[in-house]
Design a protein that fits this description.
Length: 281
């Protein structure tokens, strides 16, 4: 039996250094997007409803200020208590959540306000009702519209950035990721269940998937890694929020100096080039 086959048959019990990063991304005390938004922005005024079906409580949108700049802020909500988490669908948006976000982006575009999105979700909600109301179409529509939005846009992956559910809020001029955050097409547990019919191989799956911040940065999927305080952002939320705020200010200043036509063209080119590779026979 080869070494790799042995590892698959008998997964190691020790936690790998890479898995420590994943545990930090999922730490129960890690600040959720709305907590960071409340610490970084001022004068947040929430916008409700998608004007089509309802108001998805898993997504929050609103006008706010970043220093002297008037901006639009969007983030998913997970909730602190069990009852709140159930009401907010554990942070997994329905199609009306994405349509509410898009409505907010279009308002921002109308008034020339930069758009900021904060993402910590394992994926869009895959339930029957969500599919019946057009989950795939809502995600695809957001990806299309964000790619041609005529205002500066910045996305921050604060915990888990899962699949199309995250991408529907992350087609931005700058995509930033916290040091211990993750960006993936599927969770390691689900990948292991598909590949080996056993979620216990999650560490092996995570290693193969290359989902940590340094790995997705090396692949060109994000533009910058935001460092966290020692031990993770949950260890010092105030300092962590300050680091994120400084990064947002810096990137916004850079983006505001670029003509909007060039900004849109660069954004579209960036996403067309992500994950391209070539091989020779």
């Amino acid at each position: 039996m080869s070494e790799q086959e042995s590892a698959i048959s008998h997964p190691a019990q020790a936690v790998s250094p890479g898995w420590v990063r994943i545990e930090r991304a999922r730490h129960p005390q890690r600040p959720y997007p709305m907590e960071l938004i409340e610490r970084i922005f001022t004068d947040f005024s929430e916008i409700h409803g998608d004007r089509a079906f309802g108001d998805d409580e898993a997504v929050a949108c609103g006008m706010a200020r970043l220093g002297a700049d008037e901006v639009m802020v969007i983030g998913n909500r997970k909730g602190g208590t069990t009852k709140e988490r159930v009401r907010r669908n554990f942070g997994m948006p329905h199609p009306e959540g994405y349509r509410k976000a898009l409505r907010a982006m279009k308002i921002a575009e109308k008034f020339g306000r930069p758009v900021f999105t904060f993402i910590d979700l394992p994926g869009a909600f895959p339930g029957l009702g969500a599919e019946e109301r057009g989950q795939a179409e809502a995600i695809a529509r957001n990806i299309l519209e964000m790619s041609r939005l005529r205002v500066p846009s910045i996305s921050v992956i604060t915990g888990e950035g899962g699949s199309g559910g995250a991408l529907a809020l992350a087609v931005s001029d700058r995509v930033l990721i916290l040091e211990n955050a993750l960006y993936f097409v599927i969770t390691p547990e689900s990948c292991a269940a598909i590949m080996w019919r056993d979620a216990a191989h999650k560490q092996l799956a995570a290693e193969a998937m290359r989902i940590s911040a340094p790995e997705v940065a090396a692949l060109g999927c994000v533009d910058e890694i935001i460092p966290e305080p020692p031990g993770g952002i949950h260890a010092d939320r105030e300092a962590g929020a300050g680091i994120v705020a400084a990064a947002l200010h810096r990137h916004l200043v850079e983006l505001k100096a670029v003509p909007i036509g060039d900004l849109v063209a660069t954004r579209q080119q960036k996403f067309r080039n992500i994950a391209q590779f070539y091989s020779e026979k």
